[in-house]
Design brief:
Layout lengths: L16 E5 L5 E9 L4 E8 L8 H13 L4 E6 L3 H5 L4 E2 L7 H18 L3 E6 L2
Parallel strand pairs: 3-4
Antiparallel strand pairs: 1-2, 2-3, 4-6, 5-6
């Protein structure tokens, strides 16, 4: 699933995964949260292509946001996925608003996003 989506496998920590599973036991998607200094980063959220459009992504995101509680949640994603996150209260950040701890990842990821996905990289925040 990760390789099909051209996702960066670095930083995947299975112990932090929240997993969506079908009644038959198949993994439909997963996401993980990582505590940073002043916010929580939503990392590596993905839903299998065959399971998209069934509300699994929204349910998975809601579960992850519930786990984040009252903390601000940031995500680095590609521009074509912005609408999905905006529907759940995320807003795009300007480069000057991006926390220092994410700047290197954003700069490096901008190049990778253009090459691997043909898209722009964006940072979004949901304020609790």
């Amino acid at each position: 699933m990760i390789l099909k989506e051209s996702m960066n496998p670095l930083g995947l920590v299975p112990e932090r995964f929240t997993v969506a599973v079908s009644p038959a036991g198949n993994v439909l998607g997963f996401g993980q949260l990582e505590q940073k200094d002043s916010y929580i980063e939503l990392r590596s959220m993905i839903v299998d292509l065959s399971a998209r459009g069934q509300g699994i992504g929204k349910a998975l995101l809601k579960e992850l946001l519930n786990k984040a509680g009252t903390s601000d949640v940031l995500i680095t994603t590609i521009g074509s996925r912005m609408r999905f996150y905006q529907s759940e209260g995320f807003q795009r950040l300007g480069l000057k608003e991006v926390p220092r701890s994410l700047l290197f990842e954003v700069m490096a990821g901008t190049v990778v996003a253009r090459i691997a996905a043909g898209d722009e990289l964006v940072v979004m925040r949901r304020t609790a």
